């Protein structure tokens, strides 16, 4: 029951975040350079997030009605069971803080490699994954900078 409650709360929070993100995406200035504007990609991500949040909400409501009641869980045990989630939020906060100073390339690569080391159960392929992440960051840079005309923080190197 506790996982169903947690999923229900997460789904509601994600739907609220999606609403705020959509409001924020309407504030992106229109450049008029082409068929797609700078808010096109964020709106796609927001739509996917809303769809997945609604699926999580429906699934958690279904589980909430079907599962037997669970006993109370202490805060310490809840913290231990959600340690990776808390570390992920910390890494994301550090990424947002470092992004204006280090720039998109350095901050994004460091964030993705750090996230991989926290979340991956098998860290044997760290070099291959790091090369993939560098390529992904470069591709996203080209898409945002050249196609969508979204200017990313330059930082130290770029």
UniProtKB/TrEMBL annotation:
Lineage top rank: taxon: Bacteria
Alphabetical UniProt keywords: Membrane, Transmembrane, Transmembrane helix
Domain DUF1468: 11-153
InterPro entries referenced in this protein's UniProt entry, alphabetically: DUF1468
Pfam families the record matches: TctB (PF07331)
Transmembrane segment boundaries: 7-24, 44-64, 85-114, 126-144
Record's protein name: DUF1468 domain-containing protein
């Amino acid at each position: 029951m506790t996982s169903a409650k947690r999923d229900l709360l997460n789904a509601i929070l994600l739907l609220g975040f999606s609403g705020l993100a959509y409001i924020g995406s309407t504030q992106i200035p229109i450049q008029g350079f082409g068929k797609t504007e700078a808010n096109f990609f964020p709106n796609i991500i927001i739509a996917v997030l809303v769809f997945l949040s609604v699926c999580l909400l429906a699934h958690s409501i279904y589980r909430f009605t079907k599962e037997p009641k669970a006993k109370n869980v202490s805060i310490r045990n809840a913290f231990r069971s959600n340690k990776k989630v808390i570390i992920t939020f910390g890494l994301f906060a550090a990424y947002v803080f470092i992004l204006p100073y280090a720039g998109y390339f350095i901050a994004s690569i460091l964030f993705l490699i750090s996230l991989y080391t926290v979340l991956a159960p098998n860290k044997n392929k760290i070099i291959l994954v790091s090369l993939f992440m560098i390529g992904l960051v470069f591709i996203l840079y080209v898409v945002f900078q050249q196609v969508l005309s979204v200017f990313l923080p330059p930082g130290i190197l770029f």
